[in-house]
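Support request, please re-run this one:
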Amino acid sequence: MGAAVRLRGDFDGKALRCLARASRDADQTRRLLALAAVYDGQSRSAAAEIGGVTVQSVRDWVVRFNESGPEGLVDRKAPGPSTKLNDEQRLALKEIVEAGPIPAVHGDVRWRLCDLAQWLHEEFGITLDETTIGREHRAMGFAKLLARPRHYAQNERAVEAFKKTSPPRWRRSVRKLATA
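Re-run finished. Output below.
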């Protein structure tokens, strides 16, 4: 069995309890109080009972505390998976979206996300989901635009005849005031 990892020497139990009192993060407070018990000479298993964890977790807290101080005991956000597109591929995607499709070459009159996914696969060998491409699309500053559907047999004269021809409300009220 190896020796326990030593705590850094620039803190003591009293200082950690003061930091725990000032902390707004419950998990950090619990960890600081467990490490304060270790500074005061209690065993690591007693500190584990105070923190409600295993001795291995207390060791991990000691390592994080030694590296980063009290801020190392705050829960950190997981980094998540790395992005699948690099800057060069993003630039190529942006350029093809800005240029738009050529109907004779691409067979489309507008880019759909599935078309861009297929283009990325053919060009770079990268398989991306449509939602991922949409997220990248928005991150580049593009918006999703859809053409308003129009019936093929729509009569322009019928549309014009259907439009309202009465003046706006405020004009009617101005006329009433002018005649009064």
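Residues 13-73 form one domain. Residues 28 and 76 are 11 Å apart (CA to CA).
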